[in-house]
Amino acid sequence: MRLLAVAILVFVSACTQVQQAVDDTARQGAMGVVTETLATRFPQVPKELITPFTDCIIDNATALEIREFARAAVVGVNDNTVATARAVLSRPETTQCIQSRAVGNGILG
Fold first, then answer.
1. Residues of the signal sequence (predicted)?
2. Which of 14, 59, 99, 108 is the most exposed place for a label (fewest CB within 10 A)?
3. Cα–chain center distance at 93
């Protein structure tokens, strides 16, 4: 019984590590797409704020939204990608994140 418990614990731990690696890979792919989307579809975002915007969008996106961004890394940015970015940007947590990072980087005072 104890051996089974240890085996399950090892299995769950390995699954968690694999899931974290998959999440990290998806987020990395999504970052490039979000940066491209902001640069090409959101001209009102100043160039110096694209990185803080990208970071905050990724940090506040759900798993499904990250999946949409990762998919766009393969098939290209489309209206769904833009709508997803806009939805994440509209959240109060994202707005607070952007303000905090912009102030912290000396971009806004």
1. 1-21
2. 14
3. 13
Mention every residue, 6+ apart, whose C-beta is less than 8 A from residue 109: 103
Q: What is the pLDDT of residues 10-58, one digit of tens each?
A: 555 555 665 555 566 667 778 999 999 999 999 999 999 999 999 999 9
Give the side-chain half-sphere CA count within 13 A for 37.
29
Give me the sign of the Cα torsion angle 90, 109, 35, 25.
negative
- Measure the CA angle with vertex 109, ends 88 and 53; round to 5°: 20
Taking the CA atoms of the chain, what radius of gyration do you get in angstroms? Answer: 18
Given the structure tokens 């990762």, which residue do they identify? 70
pLDDT tens sequence across 85-107: 999 999 999 999 999 988 876 66
> CB under 8 Å to 57, separation ≥6 — which residues?
34, 38, 85, 88, 89, 94
